Amino acid sequence: MILNFQLTTVESKTYSTTEDIRKYKNININYDVNLKNPSIVIEKTPFGEKSVLRVEYSFSINYLSPNIGHIRFEGLSDYYSEEDLKELKEKWDSGKAPGDIQNELANSMVANLAPLALLLSKSLGLPPSMPVPVINFQQAQKKKEEPTYYHG
Predict the structure, then answer these.
(1) Are 5 and 109 in contact (CB under 8 A)?
(2) Under 8 Å between Cβ of 52 and 78
(3) Cβ contact 95:27 at 8 Å
(4) What digits encode the pLDDT tens for the residues 57-115?
(5) Which of 7, 29, 63, 124 lies 20 to 30 Å from 49 when distance is taken between CA atoms?
(6) How far apart are CA 59 and CA 36, in angstroms?
(7) Are strands 2-14 and 28-45 parallel, antiparallel or unpaired?
(8) Which of 88, 112, 90, 111 is closest to 100 using CA atoms?
(9) For the whole prediction, is pTM greater than 0.85?
(10) 48 Cβ neighbours under 8 A, 6+ residues apart
(11) Is residue 150 part of a domain?
């Protein structure tokens, strides 16, 4: 379980003017997630002091083809488990980090940073950094209402 999520660095930059960016029809957006440097630290929690696996992260959003800008975040996240953290760290250091823990850390990171990335991309005049849902009322109205069967 993730006990702490901390953002330490935000870097963003555009390499083109907003007018030039609007001319491009297709811009490839690349996401780079990097989890690194695991360490075991003692953290104060509501349940007392606990040993946690602290993992540094970097999350980059690169606007490529054409190269028009980037947004990068760095920070750390603390992971708590009843499992032997020394064994987890050894696995991680040997290149065999457990996929479920990596997924939990990465998904927590993206969930925390996606709203900030959207605000930054808009402020910089870049296309949305994450897919934004499209609402279509005409399509929703055409759909026949189906019974819900939620009766108590």
Answers:
(1) yes
(2) yes
(3) no
(4) 999 999 988 899 999 999 999 999 888 999 999 999 999 999 999 999 999 999 999 99
(5) 7
(6) 11
(7) unpaired
(8) 88
(9) no
(10) none
(11) no
| Segments forming the whole domain that contains residue 69 | 2-142
User: Residue 79: inside a domain, yes or no?
Assistant: yes
What are 2's two structure tokens?
């993730």
- Number of domains comprising the chain: 1
The per-residue pLDDT for range 1-54, each reduced to its tens digit, is 898 899 999 999 999 888 888 888 888 899 999 999 999 999 887 778 989 999
Q: Residue 110 maps to which CATH number?
A: 3.10.420.10
C-alpha triplet 92, 4, 115: angle, nearest 5°:
105
> Which residues contact residue 29 at a Cβ distance below 8 angstroms, ignoring those fewer than 6 apart?
61, 62, 63, 64, 127, 129
Domain contains 148: no
H helix intervals, the chain? 18-23, 85-93, 99-124, 137-142
**Euclidean distance between the first and the last CA atom of the chain, given in angstroms as a whole number:** 35
From 121, 19, 139, select the one nearest 73 (Cα to Cα): 121
Count of CB atoms situated within 10 Å of the CB of 31? 12
Has residue 98 been placed in a domain? yes
User: Do 78 and 84 form a contact (C-beta atoms < 8 A)?
Assistant: no
